[in-house]
UniProtKB/TrEMBL annotation:
Residues 11-74 form the RNA polymerase sigma-70 region domain. It comes from Amycolatopsis roodepoortensis. Gene3D superfamilies: 1.10.1740.10, 3.10.450.50, Winged helix-like DNA-binding domain superfamily/Winged helix DNA-binding domain (1.10.10.10). This is RNA polymerase sigma-70 factor (ECF subfamily). Keywords: Sigma factor, Transcription, Transcription regulation. Residues 76-97 are annotated as: Disordered.
Length: 284
């Protein structure tokens, strides 16, 4: 009974942090709560006689549960992102110290959750545990069944992918996206005046020079062009039957379009990374 009480006290002491770990790894408040409950069932039956670091031990147990859930989710081909995860609203029982509260608050970055969904389960776990919660690669290796060096490589690879995806997310929110979206809408609608507002007076497209000429060139055209990130940069893409046929790259000056380059070379297009975006433009 004394041993069970010790485990119960340690679990309650670290529960908010465990929930933060589970939420950051899984990206779902409901699944995080399930993971913490499953972890409690495991630790309540475990032999705790030789445990010297309760916080590390409990984190390892929760991480193993989360890894199993991620792998199961992947095996079922479920999309973990879906709608953006909401902020967790379930109250945390027991006392929370400022450090635990900070960890929980830091664990609910919605934008990062979307990025993490691009990682493999092992990459995601290694990155989150090390970069967010400062868990050693030795402990991470224990969870993953890999060496500390292999765990370090997983975290490093994940970090690069997170950085790239984060840059793309920033690019998708940039003012350039809004200008390009407005340009495409004006071109489709044949709104000559709106095109002029978006174009620099000296704008250039190939041999076509001057804002008036460029506006006339695009007015009523570009019906099939879609807003996209091309190699992480806001652009426009015309595709046919799912294959990119032309990429429109925009240059800007003082918030206006100064140049539009059109790439139709099949070899060049095959080497580009294209991610289509919503064409919604914010109201001003």
């Amino acid at each position: 009974m004394a041993e069970h009480d010790w485990v119960s006290e340690r679990f309650a002491e670290h529960q908010s942090r465990l929930r933060a770990v589970a939420y950051r790894i899984l990206g779902s408040p409901g699944e995080a709560e399930d993971a913490v409950q499953e972890a409690w069932l495991r630790v309540s039956r475990a032999d705790t006689g030789e445990i010297e670091n309760p916080a590390g031990w409990l984190t390892t147990v929760v991480a193993r549960v989360c890894l199993n859930m991620l792998e199961s989710r992947r095996a079922r081909r479920e999309e973990s992102a879906g709608a953006l995860p909401p902020e967790p609203t379930a109250p945390v029982t027991g006392r929370q110290d400022p450090e635990d509260e900070a960890l929980l608050a830091d664990s609910v970055g919605v934008a990062l959750m979307v990025v993490l969904d691009r990682l493999t389960p092992a990459e995601r776990l290694a990155f989150v545990l090390h970069d967010v919660f400062a868990v050693s690669f030795g402990e991470i290796g224990t969870v993953l069944g890999r060496s500390p060096a292999a765990s370090r490589q997983l975290a490093s690879r994940a970090r690069r992918r997170v950085r790239t995806a984060s840059d793309e997310t920033d690019a998708a929110r940039s003012p350039k996206r809004e200008v390009i979206a407005a340009f495409l809408a004006a071109a489709r609608n044949g709104d000559f005046e709106a095109l002029l507002e978006l174009l620099d007076p000296d704008a250039v497209v190939g041999e076509v020079r001057g804002g008036q000429a460029v506006a006339a060139f695009f007015s009523g055209r570009a019906e099939a062009a879609r807003l996209a990130l091309v190699d992480g940069v806001p652009s426009a893409v015309w595709s046919h039957r799912g294959e990119a046929k032309a990429v429109f790259t925009f240059s800007f000056g003082d918030g206006k379009i100064t140049r539009i380059d059109i790439d139709t070379d099949p070899e060049s297009l095959r080497g580009r990374e294209i991610a289509f975006l919503s064409a919604k433009v914010s109201e001003v």
